[in-house]
């Protein structure tokens, strides 16, 4: 039933939209419910009734979750004439005060105050019961105004009106659902320098310099999806400079139902043109209650996890509360020794954001941020408020933010005139700061927790990427790509080869690829930072100073050429580069294995600063990157040594044998190996006599390569001493056995060749446990050219013999290792027969073509890469040319 004397629920107005949410019976749900109603109504464009709706919702939800102790269900209904809010709880038997009775009329009673506010503020309201819940609803009608009017303010003197440049330009851009620009007006072209043709179809994110912290805050993509959004960010102009703007986004849909976002943008100092006017706070008719705290209503209720939004709204409301020209909010570090600028309004925010100032700024009571302070004229106490130096502000009031006696931040309001503030304003601001301090600290701790979780995820991914390569150049590229744009706008890596070398610029990266060359040229023109081993980031001023000098010289050159305002491509590039490195630059040492191996340099544009959490994350990354870079250096050095040693095991070159074509193909198994257990050699023994060998040491890798070197050098030495084939191999067998535990089995085909004047060649061959050499005749027949004999490295007493073979013109002698014949695909193996079959197809081919066809057949025999070393030695006696 409806409460007697109260207008019953009506649905005469057409409902055009609805939003609902449920809130648990805990104290923090009241603030969450206020945020839900405020954001919903602002998204619908009902800013005129937001404050009243928030106050009423706060009281009714408090009754449900605190006093009744049940879940609160909040339903917002938009109608053509206003908004209806319904708050339901699950405690229907709770007392409802009667209209006109003592309970209802007494503001001192704890219960009933919500209904009293409904009666005072709502156009209509009522109470309804069901068997399971009780519902209180109120209707707020929009004020009736003539067409074209919305809000009005008092007539102000001209000197109090907001100042603008020559004329106010309002850039209008329309953004499609995927974030691309579909409309761009003339004022937008004037403010940012881009013609419509240059930006149409491009994502707005390519132009926006959105304040971004990994893992926190609302991004541009999210802001464009909201029904309505207002706030500050930057837009990169065509000249590379970031233009601070104040923007108002409104999401609309066309006749086909397709949504888009209309963005209105003005210069940040002209924000009064777009900023939604504020209504005065509603006085609390009852006793003190957090739900109707004047400053809390004044500040508003951003999302609980949106610290940046909360801080920005706080400084804007504080500025308006004291009628100031600017305001700022700083958060204290954990040790309370420094304050970090986190939000400003009316100040050059790009230059001040994340800048740090000491808590104890000077001597005396007013030099400390721990106490409220009023400065009537900053000109009389220079340096008292470092943040305001050079801004034109004369008077300022600052108050601390404290939670449980601990300094958590500082809030200040400043004006251009002197003597604007007194102790009375300081008390008002301190009262407001006390009310907002806990919410700020809670949001800050939440942001730190999210940032830490994001940092851990970032570092894990970075470690995986850095561990995935041992290539020095790739490691340098990964270091830069992981920092840009997540941690910095640009990055440069300096490396130090050894303790006697100077730092060398090794890699440069900028988020705008068009600026990389200019940035590299600028950094190359200045001395590198000193390789100081002290851990942590230190500020490096040289790039910003060099950029400033370059920009100044370029401007003078421009004026000297008589083209003021007209930038050539070279001048434009110089100024763009200067803007790109105009912010804070920090250097972190790359320290590994007790020495500095380089420096990681991070930079910000346009006088921006790094926040401490980002620097700590960058320091963690630099330690991991330094170790990865040093590992890559060590790996490169060892690979260079390994390759040098392995090359010494290969023949220096193939000799030219008169009347004989010789071709060798060699493939060592294993990554980075140039020489394995297989080896070959062709060398002159004496005039008219040449030796050739092909062998296979048991196993692969460096151990097998060591026996390879022993065998190849011993063969040459013994053959040139005049020993015959069997004697050479017997002495080599003894040398292998002398290696003891390091000895390896060795199969070897050794032969000596005597080319003849008639184009034939006589060969003497010994085949010690090796795959037999194959002879290809001109008629296509293939036959073994030797008999098998015992391998080397097993028995001490070997009795080997040599066999004589005569090759005729056109014949081919093919020698291979078992990596060729034992090529497998499942249970299939190429084998000696398969090799002979391939060789029969090589009649008439040159030695090089024969070796290539054999290798191609082996590779195609199986899909998997070869797991054993492979060597092919092909020797062919060419046929005499007809007519000779």
Automatic annotation (TrEMBL):
Record flagged with keyword Hydrolase: yes
Protein name as catalogued: SpoIIE family protein phosphatase
Keyword Zinc tagged: no
Residue ranges occupied by any PAS domain in the UniProt entry: 175-202
Organism: Streptomyces solicathayae
InterPro entries linked to this entry: Bact_Sigma-Reg (IPR052016), GAF (IPR003018), GAF-like_dom_sf (IPR029016), HATPase_C_sf (IPR036890), HATPase_dom (IPR003594), PAS (IPR000014), PAS-like_dom_sf (IPR035965), PAS_4 (IPR013656)
Pfam family, one: GAF_3
UniProt cross-references to PROSITE patterns, sorted A to Z: PAS (PS50112)
Highest taxon above the source species: Bacteria
Protein keywords: Hydrolase
Span of the signal peptide: none
């Amino acid at each position: 039933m409806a409460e007697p004397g109260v207008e019953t629920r009506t649905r005469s107005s057409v409902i055009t939209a609805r939003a609902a949410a449920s809130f648990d019976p805990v104290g923090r749900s009241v603030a969450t419910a206020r945020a839900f109603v405020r954001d919903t109504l602002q998204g619908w464009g009902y800013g005129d009734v937001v404050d009243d709706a928030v106050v009423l919702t706060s009281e009714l939800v408090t009754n449900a979750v605190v006093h009744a102790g049940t879940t609160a269900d909040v339903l917002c209904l938009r109608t053509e004439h206003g908004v209806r809010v319904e708050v339901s709880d699950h405690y229907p038997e709770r007392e409802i005060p009667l209209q006109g009775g003592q309970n209802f009329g007494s503001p001192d009673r704890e219960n009933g105050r919500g209904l009293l506010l409904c009666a005072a503020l709502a156009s209509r309201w009522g109470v309804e019961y069901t068997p399971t819940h009780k519902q209180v609803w109120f209707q707020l009608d929009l004020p009736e105004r003539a067409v074209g009017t919305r809000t009005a303010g008092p007539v102000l003197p001209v000197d109090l009106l907001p100042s603008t440049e020559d004329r106010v330009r309002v850039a209008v851009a329309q953004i499609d659902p995927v974030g691309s620009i579909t409309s761009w007006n003339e004022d937008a072209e004037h403010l940012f320098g881009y013609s419509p043709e240059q930006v149409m179809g491009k994502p707005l994110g390519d132009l926006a310099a959105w304040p971004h912290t990994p893992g926190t805050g609302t991004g541009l993509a999210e802001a464009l999806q909201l029904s309505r959004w207002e706030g500050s960010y930057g837009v990169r102009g065509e000249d590379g400079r970031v233009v601070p703007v104040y923007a108002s986004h409104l999401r609309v849909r066309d006749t086909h139902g397709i949504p888009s976002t209309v963005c209105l943008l003005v210069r940040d100092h002209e924000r009064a043109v777009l900023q939604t006017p504020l209504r005065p706070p509603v006085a609390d008719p009852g006793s003190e209650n957090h739900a109707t705290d004047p400053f809390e209503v004044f500040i508003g209720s951003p999302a609980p996890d949106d610290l940046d939004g909360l801080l920005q709204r706080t400084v804007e409301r504080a500025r308006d509360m004291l009628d100031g020209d600017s305001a700022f909010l700083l958060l204290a570090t954990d040790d309370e020794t420094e304050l970090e600028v986190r939000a400003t309004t009316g100040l050059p925010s790009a230059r001040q954001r994340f800048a740090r100032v000491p808590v104890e700024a000077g001597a005396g009571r007013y030099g400390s941020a721990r106490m409220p302070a009023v400065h009537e004229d900053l000109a009389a106490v220079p340096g008292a408020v470092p943040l305001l130096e050079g801004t034109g502000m004369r008077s300022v009031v600052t108050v601390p933010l404290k939670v449980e006696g601990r300094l958590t931040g500082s809030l200040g309001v400043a004006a251009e005139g002197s003597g604007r503030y007194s102790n009375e304003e300081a008390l008002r601001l301190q009262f407001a700061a006390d009310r907002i301090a806990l919410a700020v600290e809670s949001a800050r701790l939440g942001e730190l927790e999210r940032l830490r979780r994001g940092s851990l995820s970032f570092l894990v991914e970075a470690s995986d990427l850095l561990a995935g390569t041992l290539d020095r150049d790739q490691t340098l590229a990964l270091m830069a790509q992981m920092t840009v744009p997540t941690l910095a706008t640009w990055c440069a890596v300096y490396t130090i080869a050894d303790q006697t070398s100077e730092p060398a610029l090794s890699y440069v990266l900028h988020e705008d690829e068009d600026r990389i060359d200019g940035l590299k040229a600028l950094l190359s023109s200045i001395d590198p930072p000193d390789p100081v081993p002290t851990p942590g980031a230190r500020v490096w001023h040289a790039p910003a100073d060099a950029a400033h000098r370059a920009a100044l010289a370029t401007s003078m050159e421009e004026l000297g050429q008589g083209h003021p305002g007209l930038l050539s491509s070279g001048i434009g590039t110089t100024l763009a580069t200067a803007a790109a490195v105009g912010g804070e630059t920090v250097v972190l040492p790359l320290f590994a294995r007790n020495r500095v191996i380089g420096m990681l340099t991070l930079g910000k544009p346009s006088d921006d600063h790094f926040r401490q959490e980002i620097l700590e994350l960058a320091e963690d990354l630099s330690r991991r990157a330094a170790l990865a870079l040093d590992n890559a250096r060590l790996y490169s050095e060892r690979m260079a040594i390994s390759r040098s040693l392995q090359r010494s095991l290969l023949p220096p070159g193939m000799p030219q044998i008169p009347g004989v074509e010789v071709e060798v193909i060699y493939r060592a198994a294993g990554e980075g190996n140039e020489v394995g257990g297989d080896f070959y050699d062709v060398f002159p023994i004496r005039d008219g006599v040449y030796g050739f060998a092909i062998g296979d040491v048991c196993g692969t890798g460096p151990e097998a390569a060591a026996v390879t070197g022993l065998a190849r050098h011993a063969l040459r030495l013994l053959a040139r001493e005049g020993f015959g084939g069997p004697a050479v191999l017997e002495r080599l067998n003894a040398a292998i056995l002398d290696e003891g535990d390091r000895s390896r089995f060795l199969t070897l085909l050794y032969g000596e060749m005597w080319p003849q004047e008639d184009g034939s060649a006589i060969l003497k061959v010994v085949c010690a446990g090796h795959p037999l050499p194959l002879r290809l005749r001109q008629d296509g027949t293939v036959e073994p050219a030797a008999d098998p004999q015992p391998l080397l490295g097993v028995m001490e007493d070997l009795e080997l013999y040599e066999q004589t073979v005569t090759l005729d013109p056109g014949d081919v002698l093919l020698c291979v290792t078992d990596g060729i014949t034992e090529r497998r695909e499942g249970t299939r193996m190429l084998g000696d027969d398969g090799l002979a079959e391939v060789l029969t197809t090589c009649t008439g081919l040159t030695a090089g073509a024969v070796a290539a066809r054999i290798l191609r057949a082996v590779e195609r025999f199986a899909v998997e890469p070869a797991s054993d070393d492979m060597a092919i030695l092909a020797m062919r006696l060419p046929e005499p040319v007809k007519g000779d």
